[in-house]
Amino acid sequence: MNERILIVDDERGMREGCKRVLAPEGYLVESAESGEEGWALVQGNAYDLLLVDVKMPGMSGLDLLSLVAGHDAEIVCLVVTGYATLEMAIEATKLGAFDFLRKPFTPDELLNLVRKGL
Q1: For position 20, which CATH number holds?
Q2: % of the chain surpassing 90 pLDDT
Q3: How many CB atoms lie within 10 A of CB 73?
Q4: By C-alpha distance, which of 2, 9, 7, 3 is closest to 74?
């Protein structure tokens, strides 16, 4: 297993926590603290899955989803949010989100959703 995952979240603890769960499972995990940084990494690297927070300063997760969908529709995008609404879910799905993970979540919930996406 050498799937590459990019975690895009402005919360350092969330990025580090997700990496601690995913890396021991054999995933190659990188992270970005903003949508802008995430977009720069996506343009220069090949990722299999993105784990994207919706609410971030600057470029939102939904804005990033839109850019990623136009760049490489094969990248699986999972949306992480503490602010899930039906409208947000519909918008994210239209932009290519594969599924959602509501904060807070357990390590098993994260692993199961990543495995399902890949």
Answers
A1: 3.40.50.2300
A2: 81
A3: 9
A4: 3
- Reply yes or no on whether the pLDDT at 104 is more than 70: yes
Identify the bridge partners of residue 6 per DSSP, sorted by sequence position: 30, 50
Cis amide prior to 24 (ω within 30 degrees): no
Distance CA 98, CA 96 (A): 6
Domain span at residue 36 reads 4-117
Specify the number of domains making up the chain.
1
- Model confidence over 5-46: pLDDT tens digits? 999 999 999 999 999 999 999 999 999 999 999 999 999 999
Q: How far apart are CA 57 and CA 51, in angstroms?
A: 16
CA dihedral 57, 63, 65, 71 (to 10 degrees): -120
Mean pLDDT to the nearest integer, 59-68: 95
Would you mind telling me the total number of residues written for the chain in this entry? Answer: 118
pLDDT at 91: 85
